[in-house]
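User: Can you predict the 3D structure for this chain?
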Amino acid sequence: MVGQGAKRAAILPMSAPVGHARRSEKRGSMRCFVAIPVSGELAQRCQALSEGLPGAVPVPNLHLTLAFLGNINGQRRDAIDEWLQAVTGEHGPFVLPLTRCEPFPGSRGPFLALTPGSPPAPLLHLYQALLPGLPEADIRRPYRPHVTLARPGQGLPVKTGQWTLTVDRLCLYHSQTRPKGPPLYQPLATYPLEPL
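Assistant: Here is the predicted structure, written as structure tokens:
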């Protein structure tokens, strides 16, 4: 049952808002999402795939989204924090194979992304376990896990290969827009998936 044996999350220090913060952020509301961070060797390989492409995603921004939450206030963030602790306390780490580098969401893009083809069972179980406690999550479209690499604005040839994402933690991110350049995705807290 979710809620038993919940772990404490690693709360990360928050920096000052970057650039011209949105009005909602000034009122204490933040634009947030829950995702699996991409780091290490996979992040380097992602950087190589997107090199020279328009809209290449900076390495610190690489992630695989689980739930986009929109603008949430401080009290709601506390509740989300407790929920994420509970859910990750009941799910162990796993490996997610990514086998296609392809235009996303369709053959004409505009994005280029790594995808797993068909989502593996451990990822779907984790995704489905998160939703009951995240009613603000945007689920208007079927869940299609992917790691965005760039925004070339056109369809590029599909590449197949073997890219591996180790899923051992989740992050609650704050998405901050900036006057110039890509948004800044700031981790607010991390939630480790530990062996059951």
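The radius of gyration is 17 Å. The CA atoms of residues 97 and 177 lie 31 Å apart.
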